[in-house]
Amino acid sequence: MGANSLHVLKGINFDVKEGELVSIMGSSGSGKSTLLNILGMLDEADEGSYTLDNVPIKNLNEKIAANYRNKFLGFIFQSFNLINYKSALDNVALPLYYQGVNRKERVEKAMHYLDKVGLAPWSHHLPNELSGGQKQRVAIARALASDPKVLLADEPTGALDTKTSHEVMELIQGINDDGKTILIVTHEHDIAKMTKRIVNLKDGVIIDDNFVQQVRATQYV
Amino acid sequence: MFNIERWQEIFESLSKNKLRTFLTGLSVASGIFILVILLGFSSGIQNGVTSQFERDAANSISVWTGVTTKEYKGLNPGRRIQLKNQDFTAIVNKYDDHLEYKSPFYTIWGGLVNYKNESGNYRIQGVLPDNQFIENADISQGRFLNHSDVMGAKKVAVIGNKVSQDLFKGEDPINKDISLYGINFKVIGVFYDPGGERDESKVMMPITTAQKAFNGGNDIRNMTYTVKMSDNFDDAVKLSEQISLGIENDLKQTHIIAPDDISAINVNNTLEEARKIYSLVDTIKAVFWFVGIGTIIAGVVGVGNIMLIIVKERTKEIGIRKALGAVPMSIVVMILQESIFVTMFSGLFGLIAGLGLLEIVGPLIESDFIKYPQVDFNTALTTVFVLVFAGAIAGFIPAYRAAKIKPIVALRDE
């Protein structure tokens, strides 16, 4: 928020097709989170264009951005970002609330997604009663709840131990198998290898962009 | 504004943050509570003081005499000054245009009064019929003294309610004879006095009768006049001051008293006293309002402060909500609706608690100067709304600013 602007990204040009599972890698300061935030309309690019599902994303005001986020995007954060006074179920139902879905349907849908991440028995627990892996799974269920076009995950395993990381990745792979487009920012190579395409960023530019043979997380779990 | 979904959302966040809700509510409720109590007691003091003045006419001038303290025109100090009938009539004649009711008094303190086997000591006063209005007395049975009673020096008496209760024990006292020092008087009326028991423990009879029956001759103990009220209170005060001064000077001349002798002739002007007391009451009222408004301002600042903290504390939550698709307006509305609900609810709670306390404690207060403490409900309700409204405005600014923060900045907030 300072007066000095810092150009983090210096010309990025890439394209993600529907159903891809892409990881964006790079050391800290490489601009990977900034890229994800721009894609997520949480931040805005100074220059360039961004088209999502054939909709040009430009001249966003807060209201339009909020609606796009709600319709098109699901977020998964490193620090989970669950609302700590709301139960797992209510957290998952929140994007639906902002879609104007009525309560009954909200609860049904939220329950469905919680079940999908294997947390149906924990639906009435508060976030601080859940383990880190469980919290991230609630966050994933929440990201899925609004049935977005794209899931954006910012270091989804950054706060988790290896075993839990693999469990979460297994879940993400499963969601991708169902056809959801997913972008993951990470700096862990083993996590990146579990995706189908790795984009390497350094100092704000893409240094390589390769499709890889996906490693299934199942074998580690 | 009414939207079940939104209310559910609000109740959820309120009930999940009990301490925060409680503290916000407490500051608002206690502010209103204190204000209600303050205003209640201010009105209580006003009622108390006003009722003190209802005992007697508020615009009266009373005259009584004492002993001279200064030598004057060859007369020694220490003379007792005795008022006579002619003093009373001289004043009546001179100031007749300005006087409304007038009565001299011939008083026997603690006279023994008998009815059959019952007896008691009461103040016996010889008066003129005008005294009914000077004392603000109400007749409950029979009649008050009249002109013909005075002219004929009839042996009739009007007794206070207390006397009637003590001596007659519920029996109808009208036309019964009571005996004062062996002389029989016929009871023609019973009076009530707003001055209470003290003023109702009296027996009044025509002054002519009293002077004759108790060897008074021409003597009178004191005399009271009421001044005709003009519309303007200040003018009335000025007029009664002038008359008081005139009466004092006239009496000093007739009785040959030094002009600077302050104890021989006493003239008491209740209107001037009343003005002092009323201006005191006004001052007390102003002070209470000042404190009350200060309390409200403190309450508003408190609510604003709490709103600021709430918004600060919820910055991250706001970021999450925005990331999930909340439009900025829905954030503002959420925060405001929550705060308005809490301030309104607790404001009304404080109001009801304050009114309830006044209602319970009010009648138990046994003080002459605080009576029926109560608050105008509309005033109190208005202050609640002012507080809620001001709190909402105080909360709007941080809420609006929070809604404007970019979600990524809000999310980074720890």
From TrEMBL, chain B:
It is a multi-pass membrane protein. The keyword Transmembrane helix applies. Pfam families: FtsX (PF02687), MacB_PCD (PF12704). The chain crosses the membrane at residues 21-41, 286-311, 331-357, 377-397. The keyword Hydrolase does not apply. Its main location: membrane. One of its GO terms (cellular component) is plasma membrane. Residues 290-407 form the ABC3 transporter permease C-terminal domain. It is found in: Cell membrane. Residues 21-234 form the MacB-like periplasmic core domain. GO terms for molecular function: transmembrane transporter activity. Keywords: Cell membrane, Membrane, Transmembrane, Transmembrane helix. Signal peptide: none annotated. Belongs to the ABC-4 integral membrane protein family. This is ABC transporter permease. It comes from Gelidibacter gilvus.
